[in-house]
């Protein structure tokens, strides 16, 4: 499942990562989840990642975080993905390394991690001769967007590891453009939580997965 998730199935990222975290002590409940995931993969085995090379669209990314949903360690889940040529090119769902004291902190750390991946992808495309316009990064937490674009330190943000302030430099250097997206419309939700059927099917096409 991890092999499929890393290679071509971003839609199972959250489920695969959660199952991997329980491998040392897999309960009956997680065993049933694994069987459910296997049935889902069997039913969707014809899905492929599809790209449109004629779209001429710039890089776009969506970032999200599910604050404190790991009840054992009180850590948050980061999820983000980047899109190029109307298809997903990189994606990630993982438990954050440190405890975030608020949803704003969790979202801010997710934005910073996504911006580093963004910078790497943009540099790679430039090195191989593509004229890349400024990438657009979308997040749904207004406070974290303010922290990213405002260099003024607050009591609530000054303790955050300097590693996560990279996003500020990226914005200042005009490497990315940051935008707000409504939380109910953020497709990165699919990488941070167990969505209901309606939202899952709403966000699924945005990953560039199509039946061939």
What proportion of the residues form beta strands (DSSP E)?
15-25%
CATH architecture classification name: 2-Layer Sandwich
- Strand/helix succession: HHHEEEEHEHHEHE
**Strand order within the widest sheet?**
4-3-2-5-6
Q: What's the CATH class, please?
A: Alpha Beta
Instruction: Count the beta strands.
Output: 7
Largest β sheet strand count, sense and barrel closure: 5 strands, mixed
What characteristics describe this protein?
single chain, Nucleotidyltransferase, domain 5, two-stranded antiparallel sheet, 21% strand
Describe what this molecule looks like in 3D.
The chain is an alpha/beta fold. The chain is built from seven helices and seven strands. It has one domain: Nucleotidyltransferase, domain 5 (2-Layer Sandwich), CATH 3.30.420.10. The strands form two sheets. It has a five-stranded mixed beta sheet with strand order 4-3-2-5-6. It has a two-stranded antiparallel ribbon with strand order 1-7. The longest helix has 25 residues. The chain is globular, with a radius of gyration of 17 Å.
Write the SSE topology.
Layout: H1 2-7, H2 13-21, H3 28-43, E1 47-49, E2 60-70, E3 75-84, E4 87-95, H4 103-127, E5 136-139, H5 142-149, H6 166-172, E6 177-180, H7 197-203, E7 209-211
Parallel strand pairs: 2-5, 5-6
Antiparallel strand pairs: 1-7, 2-3, 3-4
């Amino acid at each position: 499942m991890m092999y499929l998730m890393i290679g071509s199935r971003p839609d199972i990222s959250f489920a695969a990562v959660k199952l991997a975290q329980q491998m040392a002590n897999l309960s009956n409940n997680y065993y049933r989840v694994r069987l459910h995931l296997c049935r889902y993969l069997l039913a969707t085995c014809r899905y492929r990642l599809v790209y449109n090379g004629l779209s001429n669209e710039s890089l776009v990314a969506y970032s999200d975080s599910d604050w404190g949903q790991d009840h054992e360690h009180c850590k948050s889940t980061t999820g983000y993905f980047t899109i190029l040529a109307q298809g997903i090119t990189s994606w990630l769902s993982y438990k954050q390394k440190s405890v975030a004291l608020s949803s704003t902190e969790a979202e801010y750390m997710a934005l910073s991690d996504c911006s580093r991946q963004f910078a790497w992808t943009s540099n790679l495309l430039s090195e191989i001769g593509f004229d890349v316009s400024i990438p657009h990064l979308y997040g749904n937490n207004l406070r974290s967007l303010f922290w990213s674009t405002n260099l003024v330190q607050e009591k609530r943000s000054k303790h955050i590891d300097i590693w996560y302030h990279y996003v500020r430099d990226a914005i200042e250097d005009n490497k990315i453009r940051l935008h707000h997206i409504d939380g109910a419309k953020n497709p990165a939700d699919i990488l941070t939580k167990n969505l209901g059927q309606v939202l899952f099917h709403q966000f699924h096409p945005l990953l560039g997965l199509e039946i061939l």
